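Internal tracking record. Fields below are filled automatically when a chain is submitted to the structure queue. Please do not edit lines marked as system-generated. If the sequence contains nonstandard residues, flag them in the REMARKS field before resubmitting.
Queue: standard
Priority: normal
Entity type: single polypeptide chain
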Amino acid sequence: MTRKFHLAFIFDFAADEWRGPFGTGGSPWDGTFHTGVAQALERACFDFVIVEDKLMVPESYGGSREAALTQAMIVPKHDPVPLAVAMGLATQHLGIVTTLSTLAYPPFMTARLASTMDNMLGGRYGWNIVTSAEDLAAQNFGMEKLPPRDVRYAMADEYVEVVRQLFASWDKDAVVLDREKGIYADHTKVRPINFKGEYFTVRGPLNTVPSPQHRPAFVQAGASPAGRDFAARNADSIIAIANGPESMKAFRDDIHSRARKLGRDPAEIRVLFCVTPTLGDTEEDAREKQARTVSSPQFIRDILAQMSALTEIDFAQFDVDKPLPYKLETNGEQGTLDKFQQWGSDKTLRELVMDGAGGLVSSVELVGTPDQVADRMGEVMDEVGGDGFILTTPLLRMNRRYVAEVTDGLVPALQRRGLTRSAYTAGATLRENLLEF
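SYSTEM-GENERATED OUTPUT FOLLOWS
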């Protein structure tokens, strides 16, 4: 493969791998651990890191908060924005993307926050656009339940249009800093937007100065038809989960087709597929490590608690050693659910959890030595056509050993093959780095 591909990473501001011998003991709350991870990712020349977020304490698994709190699944979880500031100030090139829900933030506040962050980080900020998919989250913001998925995406489309107009409410050259005439900003280059839509009314203009990107990078993960249209219309980078290279290629081709129909050049979009590499000194070592992880009762329970939180379906009601009795539907994360349940496969619930060895976020199996996994990643990108991978762990939990395996083992193997960048372009913004190749 002659064209390089992109690398990103996703984690949340939550407990680390707190039960394992290589974690930080479950108390990463001062941000030092995550900031160190960001510095390691920058040394490995990753494009960006996403800080995922949720806005509720789950109660779906077993109809109780017990599993979520005792297992530290989804909760506790701190706000991603202060962590993003700390990580951004500790790095110089790595893109920093935070999750901001259209449910929770008024459009003006999102635009103002994003502009502030992009200024502070010198053009390296990105917004991971989510609509939130949990009724429990909606109930923290004055609603009884979420609107249907298609309505949520219609609202999100209008929301993003408001935010775009707010960024454009200041011309790029509005700040003139003319000391002789005593003019800081040219008032003729700052204007209200007077937006009146079906869901939002916003006067504007924004009250922050234009940032280096003027509009920060937009990141989105949409799996449903409405979600794919939304992502194809708006995203600079799309985060996707698929089932193997054929499914990955079909997803990327579909996004490109939707983008063209929406009047957008597909070359502007980078589709990154989630993977959860398992690395070892030998292939046997890696496969033994993988088998131990995914077959453990605790892993099975953690995944089912996570699935319950994401879909608001109580998976504690099902026998783990029998197939799911019927096809499940949700107003939550339907794409995640569809990938998980593999309806018609006749696999038991336990087998569904173990399948792919990546929990809910493995698009293709990557198990072996760093060189073996690097070769496989190159082969997969050849089959798919691009654009790269977003790495994580099955439960988004991390420890320093895993980060070192990726940044000091896998990435150098990729760089030796010319598959990923080995240096950043000087002064490039996040959006410029995404479009570099």
